[in-house]
Automatic annotation (TrEMBL):
Major localization listed first in the record, in broad terms: cytoplasm
Organism from which the protein derives: Amphiprion ocellaris
Protein name (Swiss-Prot/TrEMBL): PH domain leucine-rich repeat-containing protein phosphatase 2
Repeat keyword on record: yes
Lineage: Eukaryota, Metazoa, Chordata, Craniata, Vertebrata
Function according to Swiss-Prot or TrEMBL: Protein phosphatase involved in regulation of Akt and PKC signaling. Mediates dephosphorylation in the C-terminal domain hydrophobic motif of members of the AGC Ser/Thr protein kinase family; specifically acts on 'Ser-473' of AKT1, 'Ser-660' of PRKCB isoform beta-II and 'Ser-657' of PRKCA. Akt regulates the balance between cell survival and apoptosis through a cascade that primarily alters the function of transcription factors that regulate pro- and antiapoptotic genes. Dephosphorylation of 'Ser-473' of Akt triggers apoptosis and decreases cell proliferation.
GO cellular component terms attached to this protein's record: cytoplasm; membrane; nucleus
């Protein structure tokens, strides 16, 4: 059989020709591509074969013979074959498929990204192929389907061999004389042979991304060549052969090694109109003889080393790009100039003569302009002017009254006033944020009737001008940003005049209330941000805003839940950090509600009915009310605590994830991270779930910061698997620990990052950047590295047009241009360090380091501070996902809360380190309850994990009063932890809910649920700490033979690794951790509240981890099917079933147990409990 991916094949009776001279014979018949192949049955692979092109031919039915078809080729020398089929089904199938072939032409074949080494043999029989795409393969020259056979395609016009690592120019392609387009980019070519001159029909030649430094003279003979790509090679000057290529109108030489540009060279190349010399090493542009350059209309000099630029001799220049140089002066001719892009330089002025009356767009942002040149106001057609991030103290009145200006961006300057509008202007967008404005022009809104966007955030406004001079308003304003001013509730009367408002941000002002009658008139409002004011309530008239989909009102004093859950389009409600006490809900919630944030409302009480009603919400954020016990002294004196915030912006999905572990490894370590997937959410979620585990595992093998951090990133990169092939994410990881040389010494902060996520430390009120931004625009070293590896960098400074980052986790297909190797830096911490800020690219693009530090300093609560950072970034114009983590630091001996040493004369029992692993504390035993930043423990039928802050229910268990005084453990602070006992337990910090598994028909009044476990009807969700390795303690050998025996048996655990150290069993199972104190694993697997921890994960993909820790994932399992009850709590073990061992027999029982079965054994054996209450 032919090894072809043919449409049809088989052995049939065949006769050649229309006459009866030929006999019928059994032949192998294949319909392949556009050809009919007939060959011998026995020698089909080696014998002679007949190929009949069918395109343009005929397929006809032979009426005098049953089930017979006649195949004929086209042309004067047409051939004919008769094929007789055995069955009617074969006959109809062949007739149908062959009829399609003869009526169409297969001319384009795309075999890119197939890891091919040769061209499939059958393609050579399809003579009609005109376009062949073989990019991103591993093509070889030799072999039956090697590149040497490409000349067999007699009609080939377009050939793409880019990204094949050829190493040498395939001279065989110079024999394909029909070629009009040839792409040999990214093949490590060093020379181009002279045979290239044979391709007289060639019109497009792409040689980008190679190692070329010269071109052959024969290339100048290709008079039809109109496009030549030479970008990202090693040219140090413009090749002279270009003077002969008169049809080429664009010089594409970005990313080469050209250091100087002689304008007289361009004069000799009079056919070049577009010059692209970005990303070279240009240091000067010379014009010695003042000869005019008349033909050049577009010039791109971005990302070079120019400190001055005089292009006055380029007479017909229409578009100039010179961003990201070091320009101090710029001189241009203004006769034909239409667009000028000169941002990110050091310009103090721009000289253009004569006045550019054709200029429509000008970008002078991020320069040193203290005033605008006079000629700017004389431009008759200017539509867009961007002068943000300069030193402007005033705007010319003539500029604002321009009759052509539609978009004016003047944010981040020093403006103290805006000139009055004298007449109606066509202005549509005005950005005045981050200035020193105390007022706006009185006539702004009724003179600029086309104004749709106005941003005056971060000023000192105390009032806003009226929308009109009469009661009837003609305002068309749709987006109004007023965040960070000194406005009070009186502004509501003015805002009502803008009845077309869709987005209103008035956060962080001085509003005590919002007039109810005014809010009801904003019927078109879609997004409302009232955060950071002093509101006690939101008017009930908000229900009149039927189009409202986003309400953000965190950090106020709101006590009553607003009437917004009856709005038909509501999607997001953020009422965190308020003073809510209860929620009155309608009978049903709108199906559009996707996110509800109620964290930071310490007095909020939620009933079971309310929780059931919230079950469909994708992301529900609630506080977890922690129980204060004796063991909480560790957390109360923690040297750090954190808060975080994530906002999706105007995107439909959240592509930012946060990792936060206040208790990492031992009691004085912490781990924080942030991951930004830009436009994908899969990779950030995977990194959030695995990176903490990987770090802790690497800490077992090395204590050198660069080693364990690099290994953590590389291992996490590998663990992404298939998701990391084409998707990637920026990642930032911060690890707080003791100095390696002195475990009892000072704290250090080790930071590692790839991509654009950043970390900033506040020290003495000043920002200290700790990370490195790995983007091509911000990192010169990375730009050079990527250029040397011959990547194609597009005009928006993205590698292959995909990402602006040169280092990411994931995006493996972009290697070696994009690497996962991180920047690693260790910073010693001191008492002057106040807090740490982690943020993604979107945050720090809008909020500077200094503003971020000042913002957090003004807010006490880290969570409220993180939310404020995100809200500010949104109000400053950010539309992307935003993520921020704020870690409050309390480093210093002042934090010490250790108990003073007290001498005792009476022994009160064995030291804590000798407590055996089989200790099973009772439900009310305080030693089981720990801080809110450890791990979730004992999700079992005996002990509830915690008491929910929403008062969802209590565990159905009995109290076991102590029969005697219990020795109180010595209280130790986090700075000086006890060395004899390491018990890492954690209560869940929040409640999570899923929208995919809900059953609102269940009755919640029959039985109370377990605390810390939330049910969505048929599914149960438990918050579990995903950072399991963090609790594999790095301490010494076990204390007793029994402990050693436990460690040996733990290795037999089927799905993970078990480790016993002190009194903690740590089991890494499918990426989750289960910490068990005296609990048989077999029982835990059967317990409804813990069986989900052994590998079953939630499928709805929602991210909910609101309170003090974000290092959680949701784990779903099947709840017991009951006809009634919110869900059935597992039966509690009777105290009488436990074997109480008196202290006098303790040592004897220990010795007997050494030879008994392991901890994971018979499920029916009673738990063994040491009677410590009688000691």
């Amino acid at each position: 059989m032919w090894d072809f991916p043919s449409r049809a094949s088989g052995v049939f009776s065949v006769r050649k020709g229309k006459t009866q001279l030929h006999k019928w014979a059994e032949r192998q018949v294949i319909l392949c591509g556009t050809c009919l192949i007939v060959a011998s049955v026995k020698d089909s692979l080696t014998g002679k074969m007949h190929i009949l092109p069918l395109v343009g031919g005929k397929v006809e039915e032979v009426k005098r013979r049953q089930h017979c078809l006649m195949f004929s080729s086209a042309g004067s020398q047409a051939q004919t074959y008769f094929v007789n089929f055995d069955t009617l089904a074969d006959y109809q199938r062949w007739h149908r498929q062959a009829s399609k072939v003869v009526s169409q032409t297969v001319s384009l074949v795309d075999l890119s990204c197939y890891s091919l080494e040769t061209v499939p043999e059958y393609l050579f029989y399809s003579q009609d192929i005109t376009h062949l795409n073989l990019r991103h393969n591993f093509m070889s020259l030799q072999g039956p389907g090697g590149l040497l056979n490409l000349p067999r395609f007699s009609q080939l016009k377009s050939l793409n061999l880019s990204h094949n690592r050829l190493g040498v120019f395939p001279e065989c392609v110079c024999e394909i004389l029909t070629l009009t387009e040839l792409n040999l980019s990214c093949n490590s070519l060093h020379t181009v042979p002279g045979q290239i001159g044979n391709l007289q029909s060639l019109q497009t030649l792409s040689l980008d991304g190679n190692h070329l430094s010269s071109l052959p003279e024969e290339l100048g003979g290709l008079f039809q060549l109109n496009s030549l790509g030479l970008s990202f090679n090693n040219f140090s000057h413009i090749p002279a052969v270009l003077e002969r290529l008169s049809a080429v109108d664009k010089l594409a030489m970005a990313g080469n090694r050209v250091e100087s540009l002689e304008l007289c060279t361009l004069v000799r190349m009079s056919h070049l109109k577009i010059i692209d010399l970005r990303l070279n090493r240009l240091r000067w542009v010379k014009s010695e003889n003042l000869e005019a350059v008349n033909q050049v209309t577009q010039l791109d000099l971005r990302d070079n080393c120019l400190d001055s630029l005089d292009l006055s001799s380029v007479c017909n220049l229409e578009t100039l790009h010179c961003q990201r140089n070091q320009l101090g002066t710029l001189t241009l001719g203004g006769f034909t100039l239409r667009m000028l892009h000169a941002s990110s330089n050091r310009l103090t002025t721009v000289n253009i003569y004569p006045v550019p009356n054709q200029l429509t767009h000008m970008d002078l942002s991020q320069n040193l302009l203290e005033y605008l040149p006079d000629w700017v106001c004389d431009c008759r057609k200017i539509e867009m002017l961007d002068v943000t991030h300069n030193l402007l103290s005033e705007l010319p009145s003539r500029l604002l009254n321009s009759l052509s200006l539609r978009k004016l961006l003047t944010g981040n300057n020093r403006l103290q006033r805006v000139p009055d509008l004298l007449d109606h202007v066509p202005l549509e967008a005005l950005d005045l944020q981050h200035n020193k404005l105390a007022e706006l022009p009185e006539s702004l809104f009724y003179k600029a009737l086309n104004l749709k966007y106005l941003n005056v955030s971060a000023n000192a406004l105390e009032s806003i001008p009226p929308s009109s001079q009469s009661e009837e308003s003609l305002s068309t304003l749709q987006e109004f940003y007023l965040t960070g001013n000194n406005l009070n509730e009186n502004c509501g009367a003015v805002l009502v005049g803008h009845q077309n408002l869709r987005i209103l941000h008035i956060a962080y002002n001085q509003l005590l209330s919002f007039p109810a009658s005014k809010l009801s008139k904003l019927e078109l409002l879609e997004e409302l941000n009232l955060s950071g004011n002093k509101l006690k309530t939101i008017p009930s008239t908000v229900s009149s805003c039927k189009r409202l989909h986003t309400l953000i009102a965190h950090s106020n004093h709101i006590t009553v839940f607003p009437e917004i859950l009856n709005l038909p389009e509501i999607k997001l409600v953020d009422l965190s950090c308020n003073e809510l006490t209860e929620i009155q809900l309608p009978d049903s919630l709108p199906p559009t509600l996707q996110e509800l944030d109620l964290t930071g409302n310490s007095s909020l009480m939620l009933e079971h009915k309310t929780l059931n009603l919230f079950s469909h919400i994708t992301t529900l954020k609630l506080d977890q009310k922690s129980t204060t016990t004796a063991a909480d002294s560790l957390s109360s004196s923690s040297p750090w605590n954190h808060g975080y915030s994530e906002m999706s912006g105007q995107r439909n999905k959240l592509c930012v994830s946060v990792l936060a572990v206040d208790r990492f490894g031992d009691s004085v370590e912490a781990c924080y991270g942030i991951f930004d997937g830009d436009r994908n959410e899969e990779v950030p979620r995977l990194l959030q779930c695995t990176m903490g585990d990987v770090l802790c595992e690497e800490l077992q093998h090395s204590s050198i910061d660069s080693v364990y951090m690099c290994n953590t990133f590389l291992t996490s990169h590998r663990k992404l698997g298939m998701a990391g092939q084409k998707l990637g994410a920026s990642a930032l990881l911060c690890y707080i620990h003791r100095e390696t040389s002195d475990p009892g010494g000072n704290f250090c902060l080790t930071v590692a990052n790839v991509g654009t996520c950043q970390a900033v430390l506040c020290r003495n009120g000043r920002p200290v950047p700790l990370s490195k931004v790995y983007s091509l625009e911000n990192c010169t070293e990375e730009m050079e590295r990527v250029k040397l590896s011959k990547a194609i960098i597009t005009e928006d400074n993205k590698v292959s047009g995909v990402t602006c980052c040169s280092r990411l986790l994931g995006c493996s297909y972009l290697s070696p241009w994009v690497l996962p190797k991180p920047w690693v830096h260790t910073e010693p911490l001191c008492s002057q360090d106040e807090f740490l800020i982690l943020g993604n690219r979107a945050l720090f693009e809008r909020v500077s380091y200094q503003e971020a530090v000042c913002t957090v300093q003004a807010v006490q609560d880290p969570r409220a501070a993180a939310k404020k950072l995100c809200s500010l970034a949104q109000s400053y114009g950010c539309k992307d996902n935003i993520g921020a983590v704020v870690v409050s630091l309390h480093i210093g001996e002042d934090s010490c809360t250790c108990d003073p040493l007290v001498s005792t004369t009476e022994s009160r029992g064995p030291p804590p380190a000798t407590v055996p692993a089989t200790v099973t504390p009772g439900p009310s035993d305080p030693v089981n309850l720990s801080s809110s930043s450890g791990i979730v423990t004992e999700f079992s039928s005996e002990t509830s994990a915690s008491e929910m802050g929403s008062e969802a229910g209590s565990t159905a268990s009995d109290e076991h009063p102590s029969s005697g005084p219990v020795s109180r453990p010595e209280r130790r602070c986090s700075l000086h932890p006890a060395t004899t006992l390491c018990l890492f337990q954690r209560q869940p910090s929040c409640a999570t809910f899923s929208s995919n598994q809900s059953d609102n028909g269940l009755d919640s009044d029959d039985e109370a649920p377990l605390e810390g476990v939330i049910s969505n009807g048929s599914k149960l969700e438990v918050e579990v700490d995903i950072h399991c390795c963090a609790f594999q303690l790095r301490s010494g050998a076990p204390d007793s033979p029994k402990e050693l025996d436990f460690e040996k048996r733990g290795s037999d655990y089927p799905n993970g690794k078990m480790r016993r150290q002190n009194s903690v069993v740590v089991s890494a199972t499918n990426g989750c951790l289960l910490a068990v104190c005296g609990r048989e694993i077999a029982d835990l697997k059967k317990s409804p509240s813990t069986s989900s921890l052994f590998g079953k994960k939630l499928s709805n993909g929602s991210v909910v981890a609101p309170e003090d820790s974000h290092n959680l994932i949701e784990v779903a399992l099947e709840a017991p099917k009951k006809k009634s009850g919110y869900f059935t709590a597992p039966a509690q073990q009777d105290p009488e079933d436990q074997l109480i061992v008196p202290p006098s027999l303790e040592q004897e029982v220990r010795e007997q147990l050494r030879g008994q079965s392991p901890l994971v054994s018979d499920k029916n054996k009673p738990d063994l409990k040491w009677d410590t209450s009688r000691v």
